[in-house]
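Reminder: ligand-aware prediction takes two inputs, not one.
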Amino acid sequence: MLRLGERMTDNIFDGFLSRKTLFKNKEILRHDYQPQSLPHRKTEIETLSFNLVEALKGHIPSNMTLYGVTGAGKTAVTSFVCDELEKKGQELKRPVQSIMVNCRQIDTQYRVLSHIGNSLLESHEIDEIPFTGWPTDRVFGELIKRMDSRKGVFVIVLDEIDHLVRKAGDDLLYNLTSLNASLNHARACVIGISNDLKFTDFLDPRVRSRLGQLDVIFNPYDAEQLQDILRQRSNLSLNEDVLGDGVIALCAALAAQEHGDARCALDLLRVSAEKAEQSGSPMVEQHHVRSAQHQIESDQMTPIISKLPSQQKLVLSSILINEKNGLRNIQTGEVYAIYTQACRYVGQNALTQRRVSGLISSLDMLGLITARTISRGRYGRTKEINSCIPQNIDPVMIMVESEPHIEDVFSSNYKHQSRL
Ligand SMILES: Nc1ncnc2c1ncn2[C@@H]1O[C@H](COP(=O)(O)OP(=O)(O)OP(=O)(O)O)[C@@H](O)[C@H]1O
Ligand SMILES: [Mg+2]
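Here is what comes back for the chain with magnesium ion:
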């Protein structure tokens, strides 16, 4: 709003709008974008389609389980193959429908069944299965009825299935893998996707053998493969000649160091290009990649640290205080000695050393510290603990922001154990 007597000035957005953008289409670098070709996944695509082609012949494909680390292309490959399958089905007038359910978001048996049931409704039908309220049997019966009335083959994809099994057990899998016994005019197969190789350990042996008719392993990408993936996506999403020397190679190398995660590589490239654009640079350079990496690390780690339960924060603080005192390879006893004093300063009851040792292991699993168990012969075992929080992140500030009394922990004096 312009006030009287005020001169019309530039809008704060003008500068950004007139700036030359590096992106042709930023959406293509996001991870929910479905690429039309997937380099280095030819074998996996072939295995899936060789099995699913049965649906086009009116037969039942085998149930499958797909495994692989996060970002290995499991979801991308499956939805690509399912899209192609549906297209071919329409062309051949063979009704085939795939239904993808993300079990991280839809995580109870009831909700999965009602989601599948509701995705079988035509747009003019309004008979939605309610989100809660019906007995499971009734939802299941409705599902069978709808499948039978639509006919054809249904491919049910349960993505991130390990979440559901851990939370709700394997009843759903048992029911879904026995659908064919109840169906008269339709057929169904189930594809489970997991990044936990061991998730089938939780399953009833009958479910395990039904679901595991065909296992497909997605190996992590190496740096060269990640480069191909990045090059293909960047050609579509970035303007020509905006990538400086070695930028793709650096993004790929950093992501390969993690565990060959294509999602992580794509994020790095996108954030690097955003950083370059924000600083008005006409090119993305390697230093933009480094600063993107810092930002991503900090965006991921900050909520992990701030959401730690109070006792975990005290244990992490005790490790950091030991390090501030110059120690490396800190032992459990040394952490515990500081921890008990810290508890006193903030008026909390101290847990036993055994419990604290458990909390140290969970900090290790969260990637905030490394704790190596070593044997000290007849003195038993201990841990060698070091923090591994990246330098650009200030864990003390993050903890204090979420729990102000942690400040007292760091402003107090401690009696340190002396090392022999
Ligand atoms: N071969 C590939 N070519 C092009 N893009 C790929 C390829 N593999 C993976 N991607 C992209 O990387 C991102 C992550 O892949 P995807 O979501 O399929 O991983 P995922 O194996 O399902 O991981 P998670 O276990 O975490 O769900 C997506 O944006 C996907 O498009
Ligand atoms: Mg996935």
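The domain at 307-411 is CATH 1.10.10.10 (Arc Repressor Mutant, subunit A). The first helix runs from residue 14 to 18. We will return to this case in the review session.
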